[in-house]
Design brief:
The chain is an alpha/beta fold. The protein is 26% helix and 26% strand. The protein has four domains: 193 residues, Rossmann fold, CATH 3.40.50; 119 residues, 3-Layer(aba) Sandwich (Rossmann fold), CATH 3.40.50.980; 72 residues, Roll (Luciferase, domain 3); 96 residues, 2-Layer Sandwich (GMP Synthetase, Chain A, domain 3), CATH 3.30.300.30. The longest helix is centred in the first third of the chain and has 17 residues.
């Protein structure tokens, strides 16, 4: 595998997340560790369950470095399994519940998972596992060919297996949510996750925090709030599914009294615009985090005006590298930016020639830090495409996003280099949807762009040119395409055009297409 050497922090981490969770479990055994949908696990019970999950997996052949896949909504069982896989020495593969069956099959095959743990809700998404040489564990249902998770846990040893874990070992494998080709598996190491724990004390996760999380555990957005809360010995409050009023009801000071939360931009918008927002008491909130998509300046202003506590926006990649941080409440004149490079992060802006652009100019954002993926799993070729090296040969990750630094060193995002659409905090690659449209026998040319959406922030719109004599409407094309796409990728509409604008070298001018939809 291609070797990527991250930069070293001033104080390199000495303790893995696995060791830290093992240690803090002894500090406040009676404090809530995980709360979800009526299930409440104390730290003593959580630690015991992690041991059972680890021993259950070891008994089924999981050894150090083996991949274990999970397809489930957020639940207390998922939180236990996540940490149990790690304690067994395994690598967590949290599968997207929004991916198509085709994409999920490729993910499971690509990672070579030894075990898959599955919830009933998503059983129909993975019919292919029935024919695979893989151990199948049913979290909440009974079926032939599946082992019962509750029964397996009940029979498992409760003592800590004490499997050695090294910083260079794989921690998790997060797949891009592609619909065609083989999705890319982003491999994070224990070192990367340990290095991220520098935010535990800085963000108050070790001060009896109660972190309300409503994004799914397969998302890096969730994991970067989930893990620091656990390492801090505090409490994770999981929502199995987000709804704005449900979030308010849990966050209320007379309910779970959330002190911390991680939300994506569309969730903030829905919460602050809810007519009953003022009926809830959010006085316990100390820190609100946002990431995965740019939080618009007007939404930041509403959040600052209506919700107590600090508001911090992170910009970065699941792959790692450069991270910027905007402490919005301390920088009211910089709400149009995504902040300044985080400590230990080096961000450079490069032009089409691969050289750094002049100060103030727009360039592709490249970053280097202690938190960098090991690479795309089994795909050195794709990994190499994401790299940029400075004059000293140091490796940076290319983001595919364009931006510039203002005079104060704050990063301002501009047009995306990649044709990626961020809908509800989830990444959608336009090329994947275009290939589906072009496979339609009545379509001769196609483009997909992101257009504004009140519900999702932005949503994919298909623009097609039909073959001569074709009788299909845009709605017909959309319906046929959406039958082949996972829920999060579905086209909101398809419009028929006579021609798509192209450059002199034949590239579709998506900036021109977007102009009609974005103010």
């Amino acid at each position: 595998m291609l070797k990527i050497t991250p930069s070293m922090p001033e104080n390199p981490p000495q303790e893995t997340v696995v060791a830290a969770v093992r240690r803090v479990a002894q500090v406040h055994p009676d404090r809530d560790a995980v709360v979800c949908d009526g299930t409440r696990l104390s730290w003593a019970a959580f630690d015991r369950s992690i041991n059972q999950a680890a021993n259950m997996l070891i008994a089924r052949g999981v050894t150090r470095g083996d991949r274990v896949a999970v397809l489930s909504p957020n639940s207390a069982a998922y939180a236990v399994l996540f940490m149990g896989i790690l304690r067994a020495g395994g690598c967590v593969v949290p599968l997207s519940t929004m991916a198509s069956t085709e994409a999920l099959e490729k993910m499971v095959q690509d990672c070579g998972a030894r075990v898959i743990c599955l919830a009933q809700t998503y059983r129909e998404l993975v019919p292919f596992v029935d024919a695979m040489e893989i151990t199948r564990i049913a979290l909440d249902f009974d079926a032939e060919g599946f082992e019962s998770y509750p029964a397996a846990m009940e029979a498992a040893d409760t003592t800590d297996p004490m499997v050695p874990v090294a910083m260079e070992d794989g921690f998790n494998l997060i797949y891009s949510s592609g619909t065609t080709g083989t999705p890319k598996g982003i491999l994070h190491t224990h070192f990367l996750r340990a290095a991220q724990m520098d935010r535990v004390t800085a963000n108050g996760y070790d001060d009896a925090a109660r972190t309300l999380i409503s994004t799914p555990l397969y998302s890096n957005t969730t994991i970067v709030a989930f893990l620091p809360t656990l390492v801090g010995g505090s409490t994770v409050i999981l929502m199995s599914k987000f709804d704005a009023q449900g979030w308010l009801a849990l966050a209320d000071a007379d309910a779970e009294a959330a002190t911390h939360t991680m939300l994506v931009p569309v969730q903030y918008k829905r919460i602050v615009e809810l007519p009953v927002f003022a009926d809830y008491n959010l006085s316990a909130l100390r820190l609100k985090l946002s990431t995965s998509a740019p939080l618009r300046a007007d939404v930041k202003q509403k959040v600052l005006a209506q919700m107590p506590g600090k508001l911090v926006e992170y910009y970065g990649l699941t792959e790692g590298g450069g991270v910027t941080v905007l402490i919005a409440d301390e920088n009211p004149t910089k709400l149009h930016t995504v902040g300044m490079p985080a400590p230990g992060c080096d961000i450079r802006l490069i032009g089409p020639d691969g050289g750094e652009v002049a100060p103030g100019e727009v360039g592709e954002i490249c970053g280097r830090s202690p938190t960098m993926m090991a690479g795309y799993y089994g795909r050195d070729d794709l990994t190499e495409e994401t790299l940029w090296r400075n004059a000293d040969g140091e490796v940076y990750f290319r983001s595919g996003d364009m931006g510039s630094f203002d005079d104060d060193g704050f990063l301002v995002l501009s047009d995306r280099k990649k044709d990626m659409i961020i809908s509800g905090g989830l990444n959608i690659y336009a090329n994947d949807l275009e290939l589906i449209l072009l496979a339609d026998p009545e379509v001769t040319d196609a483009a997909v762009i992101g257009v504004p959406s009140e519900q999702w922030g932005e949503t994919p719109l298909g623009l097609v040119v039909l073959r001569e004599g074709a009788e299909a409407t845009g709605d017909d094309i959309r319906a046929r395409a959406n039958e082949k796409l996972g829920k999060s990728h579905r086209l909101s509409a398809v419009e028929v055009r006579d021609v798509l604008p192209r450059s002199s070298i034949g590239k579709i001018l998506k900036k021109d297409l977007r102009a009609a939809y974005w103010p």
